[in-house]
Amino acid sequence: MAGPTPFLLIHGGSHGAWCWRKTQEALSALDQPSHAFDLPGAGADQTARANVNFQSYVDAAIYQIDHLPAGTVRVVGHSIAGMLLPTIAAARPHRVAEIVYVAAVALPTGMRCIDAIPESRRAGYFVAADAASDGTLTPHFQDAWNRFFPSLDEQQARAAFAAFKSEAQHVGR
Question: Phi and psi for 60 in degrees, rounded to 5?
């Protein structure tokens, strides 16, 4: 008898596998297997931004599916990872049992992800990407504070960012 269908958890923009840690703990408590990984240029993956594109994201997810134990998988996409889900499912129809969108982007054919972002916020994404001094998509403290924990005071935000960076350094592909 086969075990439960595992979850493949795909993070959104400016995140990494680290963001799924508590979700994985909760799934584990329910005896539900899960696997999270870093998309190219995110988390601990140091792929240069110049080599990060839609296909590199899809290829990374398919690689993960192909290296999970035989059987089907539930593929979960958060934020921009939602735009990957149909392509992933089409590439591995015999492996993908279900796709799940979590606050995720679903784009009409031919639409770019940046086009789904309100015009008033688009420039900030380009500025943040250009500011990454390590050539990846990992945000700097100020950008992370503004985007992910703006309700925290600076000391709390620095502590959260330190955890963010620590998790990114300890989670690998």
Answer: -65, -40
User: pTM of this prediction?
Assistant: 0.77
pLDDT-above-70 percentage for the chain: 85
Rounded Cα gap, residues 116 and 108, in angstroms:
10
CB 15 within 8 A of CB 68: no
Cα separations (Å) of 135 from 13, 54, 65, 122, 160? 15, 17, 27, 20, 22
Residue 164 contacts residue 144 (beta carbons within 8 Å): yes
Q: Check residue 172 and give its pLDDT.
A: 36
Residues shown for the chain: 173
CATH superfamily ID and name for 7-108+121-170 = Alpha/Beta hydrolase fold, catalytic domain (3.40.50.1820)
| Helix/strand/coil for 69 | coil
Backbone angles phi, psi at 114, to 5 degrees: -60, -30
Q: Where are the domains of the chain?
A: 7-108+121-170
Find how far residue 20's CA is from the centre of its chain: 9
